[in-house]
């Protein structure tokens, strides 16, 4: 079992450690004026969601990534609620939604997407734009490909739909994990993962142990700060919200299952790309170009399949909203005001 000693890893990675005082975010949502915090039950699972704005205005469905929740959209929601209706759910096992054990719930991207489809039906969403980030991309592309008539536009932020986006050092041992969950030292000898093995003094580390590092505090902080020009611009409220949720009993098993299930996504890339080519949804890309998990190599291929594409690489890392939220909100406001009306007319 890996211990939580990731200060060693990130000193090796020239990671600038930040001190953190945890906020008890596991029992209450942040109280933002104009935002309501609701829960609906889907198949005996409570789905928490944030909502703001006039439901008669164009709707944005905001789909979060790993290891966060709808919390990542807290500022974007308040910034855009004057003109748009925004809904941001937490997936089962994340944020404030229910966290059934892995032997009680099918933690797979197929099933999470199915639950999200039921969620949008239950709360009465008809048409909407999708914000796809990290895990939100495979969840959202399943929805879009199965119900293209409901999609107004796409906003893609470090959300992958092409093999180029996972053809890198970070994903190498995860791809091996998809082939064999019992793999040992497969894909772990590249520049990124060598540092992890060195920190733990495990030259023959199992892939399962290596992936467990992704739910530690050091790794969580790294996801928020790596590639960011000024780490002091990143609020510790981020990992202060995320880490206590990751540290709940049984949550690591959920995360490992989702890492494994991510292997179901690449075989669907051709289907999602065909959806893009056939339906040509107006798409805004706002991508943190220094992201080592989903690098800009995963953003460029969208140009092959989309004619109505607006493309912006942002000078930041994985969680671009944390450092460039206002810039992204401004781009979204301009894009949506121009594109949604034409999208609705076309359909």
How is the secondary structure organized here?
Blueprint lengths: L6 H6 L22 E8 L2 E8 L6 E5 L10 H7 L4 E5 L19 H14 L5 E6 L2 H11 L4 E7 L14 H8 L11 H10 L6 H6 L4 H9 L11 H10 L4 H11 L7 H11 L2 E7 L13 H4 L3 E6 L5 H27 L1
Parallel strand pairs: 3-4, 3-5, 5-6, 6-7, 7-8
Antiparallel strand pairs: 1-2, 2-4
Helix pairs in contact: 2-13, 3-4, 8-9
Could you write a compact summary of the structure shown?
The protein has helices at residues 7-12, 74-80, 109-122, 136-146, 172-179, 191-200, 207-212, 217-225, 237-246, 251-261, 269-279, 302-305, 320-346, and strands at residues 35-42, 45-52, 59-63, 85-89, 128-133, 151-157, 282-288, 309-314. With 347 residues, it is α/β, with parallel strands linked by helices.
CATH 4th-level superfamily:
Alpha/Beta hydrolase fold, catalytic domain
CATH architecture annotation name: 3-Layer(aba) Sandwich
Q: Treating each run of at least 4 consecutive H or I residues as one helix, how many helices?
A: 13
The CATH topology corresponds to: Rossmann fold
Shape: globular
Mean pLDDT: 91
User: Could you tell me the radius of gyration in angstroms?
Assistant: 19 Å
Strand order of the largest sheet: 1-2-4-3-5-6-7-8
Q: Element order, helices and strands?
A: HEEEHEHEHEHHHHHHHEHEH
Q: Number of domains in the coordinates?
A: 1
Reported for the largest beta sheet, the result is:
8 strands, mixed
Count the beta strands.
8
Give the terminus-to-terminus CA distance.
53 Å
Structural class assignment:
alpha/beta
Low-confidence segments, ≥5 residues, pLDDT <50?
A: 2-29
> Hey, roughly how much beta strand do the residues contain?
5-15%
State the CATH class. Alpha Beta
């Amino acid at each position: 079992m890996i211990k939580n000693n990731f200060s060693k890893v990130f000193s090796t990675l020239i990671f600038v450690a930040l001190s953190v005082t945890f906020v008890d975010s596991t029992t209450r949502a942040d109280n933002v004026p104009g935002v309501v915090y609701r829960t609906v039950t889907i198949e005996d699972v409570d789905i928490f969601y944030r909502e703001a704005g006039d439901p008669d205005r164009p709707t944005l469905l905001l789909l979060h990534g790993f290891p966060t929740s709808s919390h990542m959209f807290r500022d974007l929601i308040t910034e855009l609620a004057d003109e748009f209706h925004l809904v941001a759910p937490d997936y089962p096992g994340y944020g404030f939604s229910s966290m059934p054990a892995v032997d009680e719930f099918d933690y797979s991207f197929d099933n999470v997407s199915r639950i999200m489809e039921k969620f949008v039906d239950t709360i009465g969403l008809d048409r909407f734009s999708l914000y796809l980030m990290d895990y939100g991309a495979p969840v959202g592309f399943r929805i879009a490909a199965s119900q293209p008539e409901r999609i107004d536009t796409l906003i893609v932020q470090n959300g992958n739909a092409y093999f180029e986006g996972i053809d890198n050092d970070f994903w190498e041992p995860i791809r091996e994990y998809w082939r064999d969950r019992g793999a040992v030292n497969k894909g772990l000898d590249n520049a990124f993962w060598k540092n992890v093995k060195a920190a733990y003094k495990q030259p023959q580390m199992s892939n399962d142990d290596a992936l467990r590092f992704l739910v530690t505090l050091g790794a969580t902080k790294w996801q928020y700060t790596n590639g960011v020009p000024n780490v002091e611009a990143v609020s510790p409220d981020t990992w202060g919200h995320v880490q206590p949720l990751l540290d709940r009993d049984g949550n690591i098993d959920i995360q490992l299952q989702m890492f494994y299930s991510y292997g179901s996504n690449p075989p669907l890339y051709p289907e999602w790309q065909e959806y893009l080519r056939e339906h040509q949804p107006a798409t805004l890309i706002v991508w943190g170009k220094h992201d080592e998990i989903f690098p800009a190599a995963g953003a460029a291929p969208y140009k092959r399949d989309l004619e109505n594409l607006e493309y912006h690489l942002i000078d930041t890392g994985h969680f671009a909203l944390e450092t460039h939220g206002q810039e992204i909100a401004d781009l979204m406001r301009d894009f949506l005001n121009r594109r949604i009306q034409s999208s609705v007319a076309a359909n």
